[in-house]
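In the laboratory, one determines a bound structure by crystallizing the protein with its ligand and collecting diffraction data. In a computational setting the workflow is compressed into a single prediction: the sequence and the ligand go in, and a structural description comes out. We illustrate the idea with adenosine monophosphate.
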Amino acid sequence: MSATALSSATFYGRFAREFAEMALPWRAEEGPDPRLLVLNEPLATELGLDAASLRSSGGVRLLIGNLVPSGATPVAQAYAGHQFGWFAPRLGDGRALLLGEIADADGHLRDVHLKGSGRTPFARGGDGLAAVGPMLREYVVSEAMHALGIPTTRSLAVVATGRSVRRETLLPGAVLTRVASSHLRVGSFQYARATGDINLLRRLADHAISRHHAGAAEAEHPYLALFQAVIAAQASLVAQWMLVGFVHGVMNTDNMTISGETIDYGPCAFMEAFDPATVYSSIDEGGRYAYGNQPVMAEWNLARLAEALLPLFHDEQEQAAALAVESLGAFRRQYSAAWSAGMKTKLGLRDGLGDEVTSPLVHELLTLLQEGHVDHTSFFRSLGTAVRGHTEPARGLFLEPAAFDAWAERWRALGPDADVMDRVNPVYIPRNHLVEEALASATGGDLDPLKRLLDAVTTPYDERPDLERYAAAAPENFGAYRTFCGT
Ligand code: AMP
Ligand code: MG
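The predicted complex, in structure-token form:
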């Protein structure tokens, strides 16, 4: 069969052409025996790609960069980044390549990107590779996030390469084909700034405006407006993470997008028992990126973006800094407004209710959840059931339900709407024990558990009786869950 799916798509190669300083032409490593593990057909359709062709042997080679579509120039992108607070001036795609941009069905440019495609000049000590498990993990979690309505990069496919990857043991290798509205990161701007080439910085900002925040072009100060648009996008994004209990795990500035999409699913996980101190990443010993720290860390990263953009804000450094500080002040207001509004909806409460009524109620609830080690997702979903007259599922989550009963009485007096709640409180999230089970089976060659999990989490609000185990918290013996990055 011919591999017309991607080869007939037009690859614009816009970043590669316009940002040669930050785009190193490179080729993906040959996969000796590529096998398609999972293909996202709805996403393929959205991109105007033919799923049947992508499944052909040529299509699979395209998906891992071994057949380069005509017009495409695969590049490794250069970027810098603060990793756990420390600045690294040269990170870049050590094991990834940007194939190029294609226009989706709505005419928007989308990056097609490979992760796990072999060493590049940015690989440092790394092997440039990725294992099947972590690439499927990104596939599952990113698609779950998308289904939850949270901005994210998407996953088009995971292909096993037939090459082994050495981690603690030998593992089957894979490439993830990722789609994003772009791969511009805070770290991309830090890189441009560190070159000292203000013209490059300005062109990168113009590019970001044209791809993501077109409104900024009309503003009196377009670059300040760009910064403000990124602040707004990130405030909204992180509020959505918090409302659904998502812990990104490695919010380094190279893992924060300019578009406001969630990116780089490494040591991420969904919190089960509500606790702001929740950390999953094995390398995050200080809890820098703990669940409850995420808004503050996002703000910290945005301050680093401001530093990178300063020369574009004003010729006078002091004035530029004042403008940056003033803009950054909006983050807390916007984050709090988005979070409070979202929390009100989770509780089914009318928009018109004032914060003086809802805010104490919300804070008391969070204290109860934390003290009771209550499963975040199950609790909010069961509250909808409580409105419909069955309070037991919610009550049953508390060892001492008396305090919950008192809280619930006050909450019910406000007239919550169960239908509104069921549209925002998911039944199914990619729970850690289910993800691990699916990845272990897939690594051993059985993809069925992965497909069942994907089925549950890509329709997260729609409760199905046969999927009961996908809605339940991890069994006690699952223990303290840890994830690892860079795998
Ligand atoms: P991450 O923690 O996945 O965001 O990656 C941080 C940096 O390490 C990026 O520059 C990656 O390209 C690089 N990196 C991670 N894993 C590998 C690997 N196995 N080989 C080469 N580079 C890697
Ligand atoms: Mg990264």
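The CA atoms of residues 79 and 188 lie 4 Å apart. Keep in mind that any predicted model is a hypothesis to be tested, not a measurement.
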